[in-house]
Design a protein that fits this description.
Number of domains: 2
Radius of gyration: 20 Å
CATH class of the largest domain: Alpha Beta
Shape: globular
Number of helices: 10
Strand content: 15-25%
CATH architecture of the largest domain: 2-Layer Sandwich
Length: 332
Amino acid sequence: MNILAIESSCDETSASVLVNGHIRSNVIATQLIHEQYGGVVPELASRAHQQHILPVVERALADANLSKNALSAVAFTRGPGLLGSLLVGASFAKALALGLNIPLIEVNHMQAHVLAHFIENPKPAFPFLCLTVSGGHTQIVRVDGPLEMTVIGQTMDDAVGEAFDKSAKLLGLPYPGGPLIDKYAKAGNPMAFRFPMGEMPNLDFSFSGIKTAILYFLRDHTKTNPGFIEENMADICASIQHTLVQMLLTKLKRAARETGIRDIAIAGGVSANSGLRTALTQLGESLGWQVYIPRFEYCTDNAAMIAIAAQFKYEQGDFTAQTVSPMPRMSM
């Protein structure tokens, strides 16, 4: 079983080759052009995907020492994501599968983030809970099988990754700002400043309120002291990160209590945040959870997670017709 997987949901072009259940290559081309605009520009993203996709696929096959004629199937991200970006990956995958006369496999990007835990050992046992956190999504997912997932909690407005990046922008940090908040937070006091976490019913989240609170907090302090941000950057970042992490873990702890599930995982770009990884590990130790945290390279968007998801679908004969089209708002 040799699967070529393609990921192009946002601003990273990635290709991966899976051979008999093992990832043999995982190539990622990052788009730097968006930094000057302070965020991803969809049109520029799709153009960059067109430039990158062929070299990335060729490199992935070369790294895996595999010819395209040896492929058993081609997998791609159908959604969710940016329409223009998804179109590039889907069109390439469809054309390649058609030319080679091999099956085509569509993959849900968010399901793939969850299944990234099955790339390497240790692997969680079913059922488990997965907190999927990124720039576009914040969800608590109950996972009863490789293709049996139920969202039991989600954000009602903004994603936590967007809250990190927006906070960084308010602090004058360049895009992407989330990792920079993490960097400064390591030298700061997480209890230096307090921000309201807000209340949402059930297992859902809301991050619009804390973004507004941070905006007003910085506005009020810089009125009396124009150098407030520069003088307190580490403490501000540590306090913001602490608040956002606690908002996530409070709901995750409640989900574990209500479901009785003690195998807990995190996935998505924000799962690379060191504050979240440390806090989850400590919480798991105190509550007797078995915690699963993927390697950094499998947290952000990558094709290896698409490949591992495609493997489960391949084994079940779950293939896609050539009439398939991208779904930017594809649900889990």
